[in-house]
């Protein structure tokens, strides 16, 4: 049976998407504008330029700037950041090990889908909580698809960031997503590729206790 939460959000509300680490600490936090929510599937919007809580390695480097064998060994720290490069419409189901992100360029044109493979942790009063599964799937408009970050997933397993059992389930979820893409089945059937946010919508905001206090980082939108 598909799980339905008794915690639902109304259109227009801001909800946080929080990415937990396996040790229980919270890494990145993304504020989202709610479009629809039925208690199981949240559909929400994150426009480019929105302030987020990002993360860096404790030595100040971005993760991508560190050699692969160091990326999951050096502790990470939260930093003020912003989401840029692409706006995203996100479908986040409570009972699936993935969320689907529609990527739109800065002119609002649909680019592709990015499927973030994740471990769902449920909902709290103002947030949907997930563990990033490292391994991801990219789906192009023609339905072709490919794995992304396979090398990082292997490195994460080596240091215990992911277990083999979690990785197997994440990979199975990726295969399921790929099969949907090949068939052109929802959400890869063109639904919402013409989405346009209401120009009068305010950007989603972080709560005051999480708002950046100084400067901005340069975390790119994940691809």
TrEMBL record:
It comes from the Bacteria. Keywords: Hydrolase. Residues 181-223 are annotated as: Disordered. It holds the Pfam family DUF402. The keyword Hydrolase applies. Residues 64-185 form the DUF402 domain. Transmembrane segments: none annotated. This is DUF402 domain-containing protein.
